[in-house]
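Example S7 (structure tokens).
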């Protein structure tokens, strides 16, 4: 139970409804939670080709969390079930994200920012929780339904490059209108800058709209080459709703 996260999708009631009951012999074998919810998530979920995950770049962020290459400090006071020793070399280990969840709005815009802002290494994983749990639920439906009776993730396609270079002061325009859903479901779009990824760590101002286009973003002034990542999230309106992504890397060079 983490403040800010969608804790409903890891509840016993959710597991019963979406996995254990009525989802074939594999679902029936899924055990009740004893100690925690899917503790080995980072080992597997990073490998799912969803448009966000990039196994060769753990520092880019994925459904499995985000990691950085360094030698972590050793704290002998930490209690563990297994012996712990100080690391002798850099390893891919904890990174931190700052994140404000987006929530469904009843009126006006489709989604709005929540009131809380959260920071920490767990945030790098639970920020995607609703997306990968819905994906889990959809895969369980696939176990005992034909194709037409189940939901499938949207196909995210860009009309603009996935990697581009701009000079300070130039305008960035990104477009994902070529995206579609294989089941014919309606789609929701959301662009955001993944500030923790890349070398440029500041927020770049842009007007937030829930459309397939991100328009008129002004590249900031830089004194040396920098990079930042923009993520397009596309979510269908099927049941359960499924999300896929496209990552655009923007290199910014001095004017």
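Recovered sequence:
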């Amino acid at each position: 139970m983490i403040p800010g996260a969608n804790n409903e999708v890891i509840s016993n009631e959710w597991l019963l409804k979406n996995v254990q009951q009525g989802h074939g012999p594999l679902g029936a074998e899924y055990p009740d939670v004893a100690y925690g919810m899917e503790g080995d998530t980072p080992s597997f979920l990073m490998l799912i080709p969803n448009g966000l995950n990039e196994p060769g770049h753990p520092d880019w962020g994925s459904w499995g969390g985000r990691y950085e290459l360094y030698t972590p400090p050793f704290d002998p006071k930490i209690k563990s079930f297994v012996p712990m020793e100080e690391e002798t070399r850099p390893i891919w280990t904890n990174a931190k994200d700052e994140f404000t969840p987006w929530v469904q709005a009843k009126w006006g815009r489709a989604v709005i920012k929540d009131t809380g802002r959260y920071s920490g290494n767990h945030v790098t994983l639970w920020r995607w929780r609703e997306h990968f749990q819905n994906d889990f639920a959809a895969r369980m439906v696939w176990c005992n339904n034909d194709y037409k009776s189940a939901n499938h993730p949207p196909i995210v396609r860009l009309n603009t490059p996935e990697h581009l270079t701009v000079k300070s002061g130039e305008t960035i325009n990104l477009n994902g209108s070529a995206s579609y859903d294989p089941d014919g479901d309606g789609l929701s779009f959301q662009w955001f800058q993944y500030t923790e990824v890349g070398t440029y760590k500041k927020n770049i101002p842009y007007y937030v709209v829930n459309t397939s286009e991100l328009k008129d973003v002004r590249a900031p002034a830089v004194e040396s080459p920098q990079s930042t990542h923009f993520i397009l999230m596309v979510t269908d309106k099927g049941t359960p709703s499924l999300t896929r992504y496209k990552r655009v890397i923007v290199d910014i060079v001095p004017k």
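Notes on this example. The helical segments are 12-20, 24-28, 41-45, 123-126, 129-142.
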